[in-house]
């Protein structure tokens, strides 16, 4: 907690106490006077590596127990938070590994979504975004749970087809 202001300690402690590791700026509004103070506080906490920006509205609190400032979270949970829990599914090697179709540990998590494309690294986890349609999501995705969190993943039958295309 070294280097944090009294207000920043109050916010981090509250988030940690209520286990709100993924949070929005509105979640901490009760501690701040106005939007300018909120913006500056968030900016300072990012600079001090106490929080990490996940998407335009969501942040991740690095737990106090992360002494070195580095931490990791399950990539499926991060993927769900990046996409705000909708219009996506996890596919590729991650899905194949999840369904035990391969023992290959994926180097990245492939996310099929209607909203974005490209690459992003969050909490030392690489994400690759691929464009897809809502129709494909409805057809190919199934909802599963991991550590009391829901996420969408490619159905096993489609993962088998995807994997078959990769075998020469």
Structural commentary:
With 168 residues, the chain is an alpha+beta fold. It folds into two domains: 6-61, Orthogonal Bundle (Arc Repressor Mutant, subunit A); 75-166, no CATH class. Helices cover 35% and strands 26% of the residues. It is built from six helices and nine strands. It has helices at residues 6-17, 35-47, 75-82, 92-98, 134-140, 156-166; strands at residues 22-24, 51-53, 58-61, 88-91, 109-113, 118-122, 125-131, 141-146, 149-154. The strands form three sheets. Strands 4-5-7-6 form a four-stranded mixed sheet, sandwiched between helices. Strands 1-3-2 form a three-stranded antiparallel sheet. Strands 8-9 form a two-stranded antiparallel ribbon. A hairpin with a 2-residue loop joins strand 8 and strand 9. The longest helix is centred in the N-terminal third of the chain and has 13 residues, at 35-47. The radius of gyration is 18 Å and the shape is elongated. The model has no long low-confidence stretch (mean pLDDT 90).
What is the strand tally?
9
- In spatial order, strands of the major sheet run 4-5-7-6
The helix-and-strand class reads alpha+beta
Low-confidence stretches: none
Helix amount, in percent? 25-40%
Name the average pLDDT. 90
Number of domains: 2
The number of helical runs is: 6
Largest sheet: 4 strands, mixed
Percent strand equals 25-35%
Radius of gyration: 18 Å
H and E string = HEHEEHEHEEEHEEH
Shape summary: elongated
What separation lies between the terminal Cα atoms? 53 Å
């Amino acid at each position: 907690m070294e280097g944090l202001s009294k207000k920043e300690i109050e916010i981090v402690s509250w988030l940690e106490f209520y286990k709100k590791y993924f949070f929005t700026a509105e979640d901490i509004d009760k501690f701040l006077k106005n939007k300018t103070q909120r913006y500056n506080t968030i900016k300072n906490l990012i600079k001090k590596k106490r929080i990490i920006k996940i998407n335009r509205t969501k942040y991740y609190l690095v737990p106090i127990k992360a002494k070195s400032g580095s931490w990791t979270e399950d990539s499926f949970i991060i993927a769900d938070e990046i996409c705000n829990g909708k219009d996506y599914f996890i596919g590729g090697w991650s899905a194949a590994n999840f369904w035990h179709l391969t023992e290959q540990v994926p180097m990245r998590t492939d996310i099929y979504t209607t909203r974005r494309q490209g690459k992003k690294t969050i909490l030392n986890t690489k994400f690759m975004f691929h464009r897809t349609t809502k129709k494909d999501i409805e057809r190919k995705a199934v909802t599963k749970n991991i550590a009391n969190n829901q996420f969408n993943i490619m159905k096993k039958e489609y993962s088998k087809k995807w994997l078959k295309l990769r075998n020469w």
